[in-house]
Amino acid sequence: MSMQKIKENIYFVGAIDWDRKLFDELISLPDGTSYNSYLIKGSEKTALLDSVDPPMYGTLAGNLKELDLSSIDYIISHHAEQDHSGSLPELVKAYPESRIVTNDRCKSMLVDLLLIPESRFLVVEDGDTISLGDKTLQFIFTPWVHWPETMSTYLKEDKILFSCDFFGSHYASSELFVRDEKKIYNAAKRYYAEIMMPFRTNIIKNLDKIKDLDIEIIAPSHGQLYDKIDFIVNAYKEWSSDKVKNEVIIPYISMHGSTEKMVEYFKESLIRSGITVKVFHLTESDIGELAMALVDAATVVIATPTVLAGPHPNMVYAAYLVKALRPKLKFISIIGSYGWGGKTVDILSDIISTLKAEIIEPVIIKGYPKEADFQMLDKLAERIINRHREIFVED
Ligand code: FEO
Q1: Pick the CATH number of 4-240 from 3.60.15.10, 1.10.10.10, 3.30.1330.40, 3.90.650.10
Q2: Where do the CATH 3.40.50.360 domains begin and end in the chain?
Q3: pLDDT at 394
Q4: Residue 1 confidence (pLDDT)
């Protein structure tokens, strides 16, 4: 997207990264992404909100040139992560009169990460305002969405909340505003799952913090802008709430078919009882889809063979990811098959031990499943069904 006008004297000047496939060397980007930078011209002063990922600085510089600015007085830095801050060193050279406006914690991180001289900063406190003449910027600290220093800016006269990563989505589009809510619901949910979910309690606090602001537009730092804000605010309320869905997720790997047979059999009892089951064959699945399912599900059952005396290494990775994402799971269990022994349950139990979910007794069998093994799977399914009935009694 090239430069676009949002409202009078307010512009999108960021960059669309249509081709990016991977973020943080970890997160797949099926829809590309954008680095949203905004320019606000007041009657007296001009402010730039965030920069772009360094390889796309040329796009930001071109957009600013198009606006024919005599100066930039303030560069607001909401967040020190380099996809938004990485072009600040270039900007402070290009606009030597500018001051970087941010909070003390973000300043310290920008000095550490980008070696920006301390003299270039103007430090603000939570709730402080800066006047651009006919426009007023109010800074609202929204920590842990998803770094500790993150803040937002509320443009009072135009009722726009510049929310940084909060409410964002990795989504490349030339359309400025969300028009296909279903598509963006999924993109934003994927973003929430991978970036925001570990900080759910902080999300709830930050939602509460902005609830009394009169907001007409939410302008995040990735993806499209929201001019119907209830859509994304309600989605965030739902995702961050304590409520889980009557769902069991089964990430599985099977080397020679034994664990696969267990999954095939086990899932049927759950489905028959009315539970929604989502099965992820990990060697073929997009791990982002698993993360999205973790936003809502009540239960995860990890299904893995034993290899080299422990769980399949890809399942170790998946279990570690589940632990790191800290989903609001209620129950977790493990099933799988081994050839001659191993410590699969011990290793996985250790990884997931920090989750608040109740561990339901695993079913680990020798070789291909036999009648007695199917009976153990029936018992595990029955335990899960009963636990679900207890928590979904009111639904
Ligand atoms: Fe989009 Fe946390 O940076």
Answers
A1: 3.60.15.10
A2: 245-385
A3: 53
A4: 54
In the chain, CATH 3.60.15.10 covers 4-240
Cβ–Cβ < 8 Å for 170, 190: yes
Q: Which of 85, 157, 107, 156 is nearest to 127 (CA)?
A: 156
- The per-residue pLDDT for 285 is 86
Q: Rounded CA gap, 163 and 154, in Å?
A: 8
For 81-236, list the strands marked E by DSSP.
Answer: 99-102, 121-123, 129-131, 136-141, 151-155, 160-164, 217-220
From the CA of 165, give the closest atom in ligand 1.
1
Tokens standing for residue 93: 């050279």
Q: Could you say which residues of the chain have pLDDT below 50?
A: none
Q: Would the CB of 170 count as within 6 Å of ligand 1?
A: no
Note whether 79 and 165 are within 8 A (CB). Answer: yes
- pTM exceeds 0.90, yes or no: yes
- Residue nearest atom 3 in ligand 1 by C-alpha distance: 81
What number does the ligand 1 atom closest to the CA of 168 have?
Answer: 1
CATH superfamily, domain at 245-385: Flavodoxin domain (3.40.50.360)
Instruction: List, for residues 118-164, the tens digit of each pLDDT value.
Output: 999 999 999 999 999 999 999 999 999 999 999 999 999 999 999 99
